[in-house]
Each structure stands twice: as structure tokens, then as C-alpha cells.
Amino acid sequence: MAHPSQLGFQDAASPVMEELLHFHDHALMIVFLISTLVLYIIVAMVSTKLTNMYILDSQEIEIIWTVLPAVILILIALPSLRILYLMDEVTNPHLTVKAIGHQWYWSYEYTDYQEIAFDSYMVPTQDLAPGQFRLLEVDHRMVVPTEAPVRVLVTAEDVLHSWAVPALGVKMDAVPGRLNQTAFIASRPGVFYGQCSEICGANHSFMPIVVEAVPLNFFQDWSTLMLEDA
Fold first, then answer.
1. Structurally, what CATH architecture does the domain formed by 95-229 represent?
2. Which of 111, 132, 112 is nearest to 122 (CA)?
3. Where are the domains of the chain?
4. Helix or strand (DSSP H, E) at 110
5. Is the dihedral of CA 64, 65, 66, 68 positive or negative?
6. What 3-state DSSP class applies to 44?
7. What residues are paired with 209 via a beta bridge?
8. Which residues contact 105 (CB under 8 A, 6 or more apart)?
9. Which of 67, 77, 82, 128 is 20 to 30 A off residue 103, Cα-Cα?
């Protein structure tokens, strides 16, 4: 959960998000070193009156400032491609959930359980219980088991939407007439918040996403209760 004045990302709740955080720190350190070097060169060139003939005309330094950026780009590109393929990997999911975007709410269908399907609306401000978050809480959360691969099929009924949960490292466009898929593993129990990340109309800001990750035995109890209510 993000908090005011937060400078970094939310705490990772999935292996993919942990990889993204590590890559962010890796790339940020490279950018910091490059910025420091460039700043030092600018200050040195402006503040000194000395001239070095090897800087004015030198094959060696030209080779260095051509090869070094290429090496830096490779150091950034290789881990980036690795994570990109990891994010697209969907192997042997234990649970499949279909998320459908509407104007302006989400509906969920647990395709492994034929009777479990519900709509998820934002809780109005006047109906919030103590401790609940304004514009983020919903009346029905998407419940998933922890430490189990979960596949999410994402689509929309009317206009473009985007199903995004930052703590899980998940963001997938919901396109009418098209079925996109993504996957995640919740590495710890918790409640993780997201919002529609595609401009979808007047109430775009009022269709939050709440994923509640619980241990497997609690998930079984929840699914049994949902089937009984259906």
C-alpha cells in the first residue's frame, strides 16, 4: 500500500515485482554514475583554463566514449529482456480468474468454479468503515490463494480499461472483443490495491481493484461459502 510522500515503489508481493525492484535499483545506479561523471566533466571544463591536447584529438578516447555506452546499454538490456520474458510466462496455473472491465466497475468470474461470479464496485465515501481507504475499497474483493500461480484473463465489455495492481507487478489492458492474459504469484498474505490505468470515461477514477491473498485453507473456505450463496 502506497503512503503519502513515498519516493519508491510499494513493497513487492510477488516474485516478478521483486525482480522489477532489483532491476530498477540496478538501472538507477547506472544512471546515477553516468550523471555524476557528466556533471564532473562539465564542471571541470567550465572551471579550468588548461587545455589538454589529448582531449582535443585522440583516437583512444573516441573509441572509449563509443564502446562504453554500448556496454552500458547491454548491461541494462539483458536483465530487462529477462524480466520481460518472465512477465509473459504463464505455466501451469493453479487458478484462473476472468476480470471484465465495465463502465465503471469490474466483474470477476472464477472459471474453475462454474457458480462463482460477482461484480466489484467501489464503496462510496459515506459507506466506508473505519480503516478503509477512500476511492480504493470495493464491496467484493478478488480473493486468491498465496504461493500459487494465478492466471488472470482480462477483457472489457465497453471501452478500453487496464487491470493493474502495482504490488503484484501486474498490468494488463482490457480490450473489448479480445482476451489478454497475465499471471502472478502472491508470495505473502495481504490486501493489495490497484486502479484502472486506462482513461475510460467520466468515472475512470472510481473503479478500483482489490486483490486479497489468503492461505489456501482460507481460500477453500471462501470458495465454499461463495458456492453456497450462489
1. Sandwich (2.60)
2. 132
3. 15-88, 95-229
4. strand 105-110
5. positive
6. helix
7. 194
8. 119, 120, 121, 122, 207
9. 128
> What is the bridge-based pairing of β-strands 170-174 and 161-165?
antiparallel
Please report which helix (H) or strand (E) contains residue 206, including its range. none
Crossing angle of helices 59-88 and 15-47, rounded to 10°: 160
Overall residue count recorded for the chain in this entry: 230
Hey, is 37 helix, strand or coil?
helix
This prediction's pTM: 0.85
* CB half-sphere exposure, 180, CA atoms < 13 A: 19
Give residue for cell 504461493. Answer: 147
pLDDT tens string 98-157: 999 999 999 999 988 878 899 999 999 999 999 889 999 999 999 999 999 999 999 999
Quick one: CA torsion of 181, 183, 189, 191, rounded to 10 degrees?
A: -30
